[in-house]
Amino acid sequence: MSDKIHIVFQVLNFIHSEISNSYNLSDAEKLLLLNLASHKGPIGICPSVTTIAKERKLEERAIRYSLKKLKEKKIISIIENIGKRNDYTLSIPEQPLQPIAPLQPIAPLQSDVIDPCNLTSAPLQPIAPYITKITTKRTTNKDNVHLQRFEQFWNEYPKKINKKKSKEIWIRKKLDESADFIIAHVIDRKARDIQWRNPQYIPHATTFLNGEKWNDQFDEVNNETYQSSNRKNEGKRNKTNNEAAWDYLLAAARAETTREEMQVGNCFIDSESYLSNEIPKLISK
User: Fold this and answer.
1) Angle at Cα 43 formed by Cα 41 and Cα 47, nearest 5°?
2) Could you state, in order of their start, the residue ranges of all structural domains in the chain?
3) Can you list the positions of beta strands (E) in the chain?
4) CATH 3.40.50.2300 fits 3-90, yes or no
5) What's the rounded Cα separation, in Å, for the pair 34 and 52?
6) Which of 97, 120, 186, 262 could form a disulfide with 255 if both were Cys (CB 3.0 to 4.6 A apart)?
């Protein structure tokens, strides 16, 4: 073992021994001792303060202060050389040797210990059969709650594709906590979203749930446009009914029979009774 390794181990043993407690060494002083030991060379220990400060990443005055404390505690001695590096000598106290504990006698063999030379003395025990435990996943009440809320969502969602994957996303994202808001959003969007009027623009349920589309805004249907469209359709319907009524009135006026009968298909009916009963029905449709 080289001198450098020997003195490093000597310092380590000293630092971790009970003797070092009597010297009341600080952590900085212990590290400085190890640093000095690592600089052991053929001509001794002679690192400069600047070199130690760079290695420890400390200021030089902090290194000088720790060297002074170690010198006062007579753990190191310093020979100052003017214009040269100082020489350091470590005075590490010797560690007392610890007495070796006496060997304990070996206990004698017990009578119940199996003799390895006579393996047949102990009867062989039957091997227990290997039974694999089959576990089945039980559906808990919590899972049932998830499924109930998902079914409510699925019944309202307009595009019913890939229900199994949609259910897995619902349970994984714990969407039953927001189920009321999600279902209300779907109902509202079906009624007021312009794009959802066309089924091809409605996203799949998996896309809707993964992307949390209930938080998105959408273009609402223009109520005035639909109301004006409904008024036009209603006007056409009334016009058609009125035209049919006037056609029947004209046919009744042109009846040539003395009994004021008119022909409807292959039957003759009384024109007055027809005007009083059937015409109001046509107009009210």
Assistant:
1) 60
2) 3-90, 141-215, 229-284
3) 40-41, 44-45, 76-79, 87-90, 261-264, 267-270
4) no
5) 11
6) 262
